[in-house]
Design brief:
Fic-like fold, 15 helices, two-stranded antiparallel ribbon, mainly alpha, Arc Repressor Mutant, subunit A, three-stranded antiparallel β-sheet, 5 strands, single chain
Amino acid sequence: MKTLKQFISGLETIPATTSWYLAEISESKGKQELYTKQSPQRLKSLKEHALIESAVSSNRIEGVEVDQKRIGTVIFGKSLLSDRSEEEVRGYREALNLIHSLGSRLPVSDETCRHLHIMTRGEIWDAGQYKEKDSDIIEKRANGTSSIRFRTVPAKQTPKFMKQLHASWKDAVKETGMHRLIALAAYNLDFLCIHPFRDGNGRVSRLLMLLQCYHAGIEVGRYISLERLIEQNKERYYETLKLSSEGWHEGKHNPWHYINFLCFIIKSAYKEFEARLGDMPQPRGEKTEIVRKAVTGFSDDFSVAALHKHCPGVSVDMIRRILKDMQAEGAVECLGRGRSAKWHKMLN
């Protein structure tokens, strides 16, 4: 709320590092559809793997763990669960399924926040209810001492702050001058500073981040676990959150530490997605079919470079070989020589 309101009232400049992240993510987002269309049957294993990693990592960040031997059963099975930790991990999986199935059709709202909390907290008495007592964020040190790291919004003011947060989110979405990723990260920071629930705020915040990625047209979280990447960078996660929350109540905080961290996570997810999809073995003949389908999609003459953009997982040399085969079949003809030569699709 404090961050979103600050940006809505006037976002004058964006730090250079943030701009760089946004450009990188935008480029990867542009390739997203090409990768998912060219090999849909190869994505199933990535989805299942991401589902497991997300449910396990997001809970493990909060100290909730399950027996490694039971993970498959907890995530995908229907058997009875043995303890509270297993219930929370399975509940998180069900929340992930909800977000992945509905995507941007699921609104970012007060109702959705409460529902996700119920799913991840199960049968606990205050699931879906905002905190009834003030609860500050405590930092525990290795020597056994502790201190208040951040004073969250008081319990009595929490419903009002959450209502304002979602009103600000709607305003931010309407604001054409604000990049959706910046709005997403600002919302996430505000949510964690409000700390609306007695427990489970971190998990709900990560589910909301995934949901808001869908609203921004970013679907990499379906295939690569954002939660696992956050866990792998947990120290940086907590450090940037601490830096960006200082002065939040007064509206004098610096949100860019945390915004850049979330941009880094999404950028890393795209980088891993492209690398892992490119490294996965393809069925025999699949690349040929990808190129042939891409050729049929052109309405005008095209170059090898243009064709390669539509087939990012296929090498230029292989594209040339396939075009020569198609030329021998009479399906295409080459209109020139050299790398810049145009190709023409023949009418059947």
